[in-house]
C-alpha cells in the first residue's frame, strides 16, 4: 500500500507544530507518509499560510518559511503540488455538498473560495486586476 498522503492546511500545521491535535485516523497515515512516503500539500496551502501568518494571533508563526524549506529539501517527505488548470477543471466535477464548508448554496458564504474572494474584494488586491460583482452575484475577474 502506498503511504503517500495529501494533507490539508490544518493537518500539515498540526503535524509539524501541534501533533496532539491530529485525529486518530490522521496520526498513523501521516506517520507512515513521513517515514516511508511523501506528504503532499497544495500550493494553495502556501498561499493560505501567507494570509494566516499576517493575522495577529496565528499560533504557528514561521509556517510558510518552514514548509518552503522542508519542501525544497530532497530528503524531507513534505512536497508541494502545483495547482494546474487540469486540477481546477476537475474541481468542477466535485459536488458542492462534498466540499467542506460548502454544504449547499445556503452555506456558500462560509466556503473557503468565498472567504478568499471577499478578502480580495475588501483589499482590492491590485496584482489580479481587481474583482467586480456581476448582477448574478458571482465574482468575476475583469
What would you say this structure looks like, in words?
The protein has helices at 9-17, 26-36, 43-54, 63-72, 85-91, 112-123, and strands at residues 5-6, 39-42, 78-81, 132-133, 139-140. It is mainly alpha-helical and 142 residues long. Strands 1-2-3 form a 3-stranded parallel sheet. Strand 4 (132-133) and strand 5 form a beta hairpin. Helix 3 (43-54) packs antiparallel against helix 4 (63-72). Residues 106-110 and 124-142 have low confidence and may be disordered.
Keywords for this structure?
142 residues; mainly alpha; 6 helices; disordered C terminus
Mean pLDDT equals: 77
Determine the number of helices (DSSP H or I, runs of at least 4 residues): 6
Topology pattern, helix = H, strand = E: EHHEHHEHHEE
Strand content: 5-15%
Number of DSSP E strands: 5
- Determine the fraction of residues in helical runs and give it as a percent range: 40-55%
Instruction: Measure the end-to-end span.
Output: 46 Å
Radius of gyration: 17 Å
Shape descriptor reads: globular
Biggest sheet statistics = 3 strands, parallel
Whole-number tally of structural domains: 2
Amino acid at each position: 500500500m502506498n503511504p503517500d498522503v495529501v494533507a490539508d492546511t490544518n493537518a500539515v500545521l498540526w503535524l509539524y507544530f501541534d501533533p496532539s491535535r491530529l485525529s486518530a485516523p490522521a496520526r498513523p497515515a501521516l506517520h507512515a507518509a513521513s517515514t516511508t512516503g511523501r506528504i503532499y500539500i497544495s500550493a494553495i496551502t502556501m498561499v493560505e499560510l501567507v494570509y494566516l501568518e499576517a493575522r495577529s494571533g496565528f499560533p504557528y508563526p514561521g509556517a510558510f518559511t518552514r514548509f518552503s524549506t522542508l519542501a525544497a529539501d530532497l530528503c524531507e517527505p513534505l512536497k508541494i503540488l502545483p495547482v494546474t488548470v487540469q486540477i481546477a477543471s476537475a474541481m468542477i466535477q466535485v459536488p458542492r455538498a462534498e466540499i467542506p464548508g460548502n454544504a449547499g448554496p445556503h452555506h456558500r458564504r462560509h466556503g473557503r473560495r468565498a472567504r478568499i474572494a471577499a478578502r480580495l474584494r475588501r483589499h482590492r488586491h491590485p496584482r489580479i486586476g481587481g474583482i467586480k460583482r456581476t448582477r448574478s452575484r458571482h465574482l468575476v475577474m475583469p
